[in-house]
């Protein structure tokens, strides 16, 4: 057999197909293509089965809303709330094969919220009833005098479909402007470097929330999904190596190792065939790689340090939403939406992370050209449903926030910096009775 025979290919099957595309499809299906269709049908069936089992599992969950009030005078900074979030990370549980495919078990979430109803501001945690002990233990460990009470879900009292005759709604979901590994501006940077005094970034927001009148409500929500920490830390470490000029070794998959086999065999044959029996001289090493850290500016070094600091903390997958809902006769976006957006800008830094409201896909957008009101009403309905369900799946993709970032965005007001008279606080400090009380 000549060399030219090795490169000959039988194209006679083209004549069998003809010009009819349906004949072509049937030909490929009958000659092995059915395997692909069988695999695809099996994969779809498995996904439908798992979704069905998960829906049954989720339908059995019982949720509660816990209102948390802290003493009026306390000396805790957001560092105490950071410890609280680190405690919440213990809610993560790895699923077994039975949990995933038979029981349909899903990871339970925890939603932390700041709510203003008619100007009365309170901090709320909404989660499954089984996590109540975890939440209370976390809060009491940092705030022993806190008052925790179960309340009705405040969001249930607001209409779920728009347009509505009496109510109107403005809302959005927040997204990040850079990869998740870059952190936002966190609470340590709000401390005065000279005096050490902490300037609470939520003070102005809480003050504006307390100014709402009857018939107005504003809700800020961060839904937390506890996750395994390893993957995020590894990817963050890879970004740090890339920024500092270190070599990043790509992890090979099964197909990569399979492709390396013939290359290795050919290399071994060539080394035997062309070697003279003597050992090959050692390869000369090139110049050693110099880390970029020596030539980085202080700002660039700060960015690397911030990424490393975030990777060292407990991390959650998160979704952030804000909704302002009010009766049409009293609704005023300028009084609450503008101050809220201004407050959120405090946490964005150009060289690190930027969190911004999404108006292109999810948020209520006044700049639409076509069918603006109808499309905005659809968005209002989707937003309120996602908020009430504390959904991790509806809307735009979530992003990762660490315990330090979460404590910056959601923490109890620092004593003396929030003057709002309508902010719910525990006015009376709880103490144990004295041991020498006479009985008789």
Named CATH architecture of the domain at 62-229 and 314-409: 3-Layer(aba) Sandwich
Arithmetic mean of pLDDT: 81
Helix content: 25-40%
Structure summary, number of beta strands: 9
What is Rg?
Answer: 30 Å
| First and last CA, distance | 115 Å
> Treating each run of at least 4 consecutive H or I residues as one helix, how many helices?
12
Instruction: Write the CATH fold name of the domain at 62-229 and 314-409.
Output: Vanillyl-alcohol Oxidase, Chain A, domain 3
Q: State the name of the first-level CATH class of the domain at 62-229 and 314-409.
A: Alpha Beta
Tell me the major beta sheet: 9 strands, antiparallel
- How does the overall form come out from the CA principal axes? globular
- SS class: alpha+beta
- Oligomeric state, counting identical vs distinct chains: single chain
> Uncertain regions: pLDDT < 50 for 5+ in a row?
none
The fraction of residues in strands falls at 15-25%
* Secondary-structure element string: HHEHHEEHEEHEHHHEHEHEH
Summarize the structure in words.
The protein is of the alpha+beta class. Among the domains are: 22-60; 62-229 and 314-409, Vanillyl-alcohol Oxidase, Chain A, domain 3 (3-Layer(aba) Sandwich), CATH 3.40.462. The protein contains 12 helices and 9 strands. Strands 1, 2, 3, 4, 5, 6, 7, 8 and 9 form a 9-stranded antiparallel β-sheet that branches. Strand 2 and strand 3 (120-128) form a beta hairpin. The protein is globular and about 80 Å long.
